[in-house]
Amino acid sequence: MLAHDSRIANLPLMALACFAVALVPGKNSPAAESTAVATALRGDEQTYAWPQFRGGSDDGNSPADVRLPVTWSETENIRWKLPLELRGWSSPAVWGDTAVLTEATPDGQQMFALAVDLNTGKVIWRKRVFENTEVEEAHIMNSYASPSPATDGRRAWVHFGSYGTACLNLADGELIWQRRDLPCAHHRGPGSSPLLDNQGRLFIHYDGFDVQYLVALSAETGETIWKRDREIEYGTLDGDQMKAYSTPLLITVDGQPQLISSTSKAAIAYNPEDGNEIWRVVYNEFSATAQPLFDGETVYISTGFGKAHLLAIDPTGKGDVTDTHVLWDAPKGIGSKPTPLLHDGLIYNVHDAGVASCLDAETGETLWTERFGGLFSASILGAGDRVYWFDHDGACYVTRTGREFERIAENRLDDGCMATPVPLPDSLLVRTRSALYRIAAPPADDSPVAP
Q1: Model pTM score
Q2: What per-residue string of b and e applies to 300-315 under the rule 16 or more CB within 10 Å gives b?
Q3: Maximum Cα–Cα distance for the chain, whole Å?
Q4: Could you report the average pLDDT of every consecutive run of 10 residues in the chain (451 residues)?
Q5: Which candidate, 191, 131, 201, 202, places its Cα nearest to that of 163?
Q6: Are 105 and 88 in contact (CB under 8 A)?
Q7: What are phi and psi of 54, to 5 degrees?
Q8: Residue 289: which of 307, 303, 278, 273 has the closest Cα?
């Protein structure tokens, strides 16, 4: 499947253990990295993986050959339903037939990781990872287990913000290493997920009420590779406008890697090797939450709270490029929490208050808007020619991709989603506030989604 891609032979061992990348036509000729990761490699085996938040390519697009359900309810197309004991908004990380997720007691004093057998919906193991005697209050819209885990098929990395990060054996949940010495006052609860790369590094944001920094850790040992304090003029002493919840994104620009990190008041590109700053764009908003997007040429940043803007940025600059490299600024109807979906030159966005829109990625022009109603936090999922939008109250709207709005289905479960759903080869893994579901594509729906 991957023999045509000569880059695979030169990737480090971690890359071969984690990700298999297909090539598709894109802006950077002759090929750009695919926006879908269909398989992961271990030895001679091919195993389906969705190894971290928004997948192996960190873009929320499903592999082209998956077959996802279009309609469901509590009594239709449910393969299994697993009630969850505690509270957590983390999205599952999947490797083969195993899903890993986290949860915590409502008071945050106990934090757990669990692995679930995707065939049966049964818990394989459940481990108490951390106990806390003192915790900060988490916002009612947040939990103490909101950051999503990552896995490479042998290990799982679970993160609870400043309360701790741990590496566990995927097979049995046994602890390999932990870190509890990276402090910050989240004030509203943790939210940033760790980013695992193919060099064996974990990149993690610590944007707190009191201190703001990011680190690169060795995924193997947990040791700090580098730590970089934010150097931002916040223009205020209000820590609420300094904290943030975004997950970083790794991209390549002119052959050089960049770690794109959106936070309060600025989006900054760092060198992932040493944490040195490459460029920045400053803005007025705070508490950035959405993960950045990248189409091979342009970075897209949702700026956060206050009133979110969506910025298109040329990432080839150096230093402060606010006045020179912002290609367009879309100021209306942009979601603060949900990460938009970039697919085939279009950006699908939903405001937290339930108004969906589609923007032209080249110009920023709004092509359509549609009011769904409800409240939204989960990031948007793409699956070929379909888009999946999950709200807080149990509704999922399935629409067609394109420059005109087309609703395919509206589905409803008993409870709603704060976590972003995960595509499986023939089903959807959906975490609501009270249960984990595997929702199957019916046998009659035997055609894969269009690539």
Answers
A1: 0.90
A2: bbbbbbeebbbbbbbb
A3: 59
A4: 30 38 32 33 68 96 94 97 96 98 96 98 98 89 95 98 98 98 93 97 97 98 98 94 97 98 98 98 97 98 97 98 98 97 98 98 98 96 97 98 98 97 97 98 60 46
A5: 131
A6: no
A7: 65, 20
A8: 303
